[in-house]
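All the exercises in this workshop are built on plain-text protein records. A record pairs a protein's sequence with a compact description of its fold. Backbone structure tokens are a discrete shorthand for how the chain folds in space. Once this layout is familiar, the rest of the handout is easier to follow. As an example, a complete record with its sequence and its structure tokens follows.
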Amino acid sequence: MAGEFGEVLRRLRTAAGLTQEELAERSEVSERTIRGLETGKRTNPRMTTVQRLAEELALRPREREELLRAAVRRDQDGEQPAEPSTEAGAGAGAGAGAGDEPGTGTDADPTGAPADDGPGDPPAPTPPSTALHPATALHPATEPHPSTEPHSPSDSHSPSDPAEQLAALVTARWQREEEQRQVQDPFPLPVRWETAPEALTDHWANILRLPAQATARPLDLDGELGEIAATYRRIPSRRLVVLGRSGSGKTILALRFVLDHLRTRGTSEPVPVIFSIGAWNPTTITLRDWLAAQLTRDHPGYAARGRGRESLAAELVESGRILPVLDGFDEIADGLRRPALEALNATTLPLVLTSRPAEYAAAVAETDVLTAAAAIRLTDLTLDDLAAYLPRTTRKPGREDPDANAWDPVLTALREQPRDRPDSPLATVLKTPLMVALARTIYSDTPDHDPACLLDTERFGSPEKLEDHLLDNFIPTVYRHRLHGSSSGGSHPGFDADRARHWLGYLAHHLTGLKTPDLAWWRLGNGLRRSTRTLVTAVLLALAIGLVDGAISFGVNGRVTGALLDASVVGLLAGLMFGFVHWLTYTAKGKQAAPSAVRLQLRRRPGATVWTAGPRLVIGTLGGAVFGSAYGFVVGMVITYAVTSDLSIIVHVGLVDGLVFGSVFGVATGLTFCLLGLLETPLDIDSAVNPRSLLTTNRGTVTTQLLVWAPTFGAVVGFGSGVAVDVFQGSVGPLVWTSEAAALLGVISGLGGAIGYALTLTAWGQWLVLTRIWLPLTGRLPWAVVTFLEDAYQRGVLRQAGAVYQFRHARLQQHLARHHRRAALHDDFIAPL
């Protein structure tokens, strides 16, 4: 009978003059689903899907009834689905097996609410064996979202499918992160929630996707940590807002949602990916473009082109195969929350959004709630939760009573507090998982610290003072012990707690200034003033290129004075020129150096990025011509001024040299840029990315670029200078040029140009100049920056979010930044004394 439905659907689609692709685009039902229905591979069409197809085919009443009858006739014949769904609302008739989610039994309401026989309640879903008349076909609200339809085994995604590979990468990443954060040690802290107030949610009719004039009954979304994926699947709109105060466990809930959703994910469901939305500026980039950019940053292999001209990341986002888990709406800058919420409302993407309640409520008051989104609010931990958790985090004492531990007196004192009085500061503070985790680190993992001191109300007269105490002592506590080894496998140097606090304070202050939670190695130098970055880059380039020029000149001529003079002139001019290029690129245009998402392959010519060679040829030629003209003009005048003071001769020689060098450098730069573009190939799609691996990959890419740039650029400049002299000979005056001068120019230009390009225009070069040299030289960061960041990650101060680090919690970042600013003001105050 399933074949009959496919034949009817194909006939009606053909009569409407639509292809499978066109019908899929109109109905928002995937082309794969339509193809499966028409070929008989899908034998159990959802009524939501059938109704959408009927609407977009613009069927007449008789044709619509024929299609619906064909869809339900297999149920009248008693056929059962080949694979019962375990998703919320799709479990009618399915057993309560181990894979079932809560609320998927036949006694549950299709909208996720418990069954109720009270008056006015909607009927329970009909089991698959019950016949349905087309006129009473299931309402959209009683069916799962079309994206959750299970595929037949023959229609499953291949392991090489980009979405499936992404699912595996995301699973591995967040499992490691969960282990690093000790979420399961000894067991997860209870994170519970309740349905949020109606003022922060959309109309339930919109959330349930009901048609006009339909009666909507609110869902009961109350639950706890292990039920978050099931709770989300009970929401037909697939849009959920998670609200919770600072430290209440929103990020841990997002992490658990991703892992649970991936564990129970159907092959047609999108892949959940966590994005730190605090880094999004909705006034400069659209949500989908930002999601694709973030996905490419954390998974550079997805920068490769897909079937069209877009990248794989953009295709996954545009096709709805990514489920954005947007963590930290409250971390968006104050003036950007309203446009951010408006931008989210302009899309229909399924998503999960986390935020503190006050910031979200303020944005809602300015515009509107998140369209079609349900909302839940995290609740506080209870004293019973603490009693079950904290004693099991301590070492077993060597006492007569092995069950006794340091937390017993504290818990007893909290239980004995009179209920008619306000909670003590400690009872108030320990209601959030963040503060419990800090208290555990300081007092459970450190035997000589007694948690009973936390009960001292004279010392800690308010919750704020107690929280500051825990935040103040967290860094000294985690830096007390020397780690055994770094994540790279080498010996660990160890870091002093006071110095580590200073460096972490600078990093926190740096992120606060940039208004982002992402600690990216390629943006560490952006905390400096733009003028400082330009000056430091220019000076270091002048020194590097001057040293190269002086060494080569001395090796050729053997004269120290001449070599020093030549090195000084070339170094100074190169520093000025490349400093101007740096200023023009990163200051005037506001562009930021970003890590390359490609690598260079020298053995064969890849075809994936050949299309960039043409633009590179044009851009490189124009840029090289401008640089060469300016360079030749200045050098020509300086050299001529040493011989004569006639201004007309000085200017004439400068103009001629500018013309010659502009032509030579323009051709050389254009050809070299073009060659680099031809050699680029995307990174492997399954390449693991973390801050160190991305840095290592980009260092390797820049090294290969230098190996290509130096000989290619030097050879073209050396050979091209002779050609240019022959071309312009006579037309601009007699020109004197020797083969030795051409060779010397080629070598110096090749090496100097490669160094200038690498340090000025690449993310790794800027990292080397600013983060590895200048910031440690001025005491802002340690010399072993990467090792320090990895050390902070292993100690639990930082967390990894793909290619970047983040502070363990925004509250910790704010505390360290505030302490850093106070220390800086104190130093400025006492310096004159």
User: Anything to note?
Assistant: The chain has five domains: 1-83, 162-378, 383-478, 497-520+773-830, 595-761. The chain has 28 helices and eleven strands.
